[in-house]
Amino acid sequence: MAELIINKKESWVSDSIDGTLYTQRLGNLVKLDFNNDIKIIARNDWNKDKVAIICGGGSGHEPAHAGFVGKGMLTAAVCGDLFAAPSVDAVLNAIVHVTGEKGCLVIIKNYTGDRLNFGLACEKAKEMGYDVELVIVNDDISIPNNPKPRGIAGTLLCTK
């Protein structure tokens, strides 16, 4: 039955991104192509005169993150593989692509891989002279007294 919905598990994330781009209403989104495994969706109408907002993480719970790129929401989304954080290089490429003089706010969930890779990318961007701030969302009402709240729901509210 899964074969009817998913072409191949190896291409699922790219296929999902392609579907998001194919169904966009305004035509203002683009998949950044770096000729490698980096998967970033960004606004193609962004002129860097405002603070850029980036979010991302592992894929598999769409429409987060790519589905929230657009006016009044995210400037770019960095998509990792299924339930795996995107690479430091992917995040850094997104920051460099959308950040202007006003800077960039990077919003992530409280997952170890996201904290590590997005954090390292933000540090590298700062070393390159970019004004970048990182916000880690860690709300979690789904598991009472959770010692490691993940921030899944709250990330959407922070993005908006």
Task: Summarize the topology.
Elements: H1 12-22, E1 29-32, E2 39-43, E3 52-59, E4 76-82, H2 88-98, E5 104-109, H3 112-127, E6 132-137, H4 152-159
Parallel strand pairs: 3-4, 3-5, 5-6
Antiparallel strand pairs: 1-2, 2-4
Output the keywords:
160 residues, alpha/beta, Rossmann fold, six-stranded mixed beta sheet, 4 helices
Short description:
The chain is α/β, with parallel strands linked by helices and 160 residues long. The chain has helices at residues 12-22, 88-98, 112-127, 152-159; strands at 29-32, 39-43, 52-59, 76-82, 104-109, 132-137.
Could you explain how this protein is built, in words?
- There is one protein chain.
- The protein is an alpha/beta fold and 160 residues long.
- The protein has one domain: Dihydroxyacetone kinase, domain 1 (Rossmann fold, 3-Layer(aba) Sandwich).
- The protein is built from 4 helices and 6 strands.
- Strands 1-2-4-3-5-6 form a 6-stranded mixed β-sheet, with helices on both faces.
- A hairpin with a 6-residue loop joins strand 1 and strand 2.
- Helix 2 crosses helix 3.
- The radius of gyration is 15 Å and the shape is globular.
- The model has no long low-confidence stretch (mean pLDDT 89).
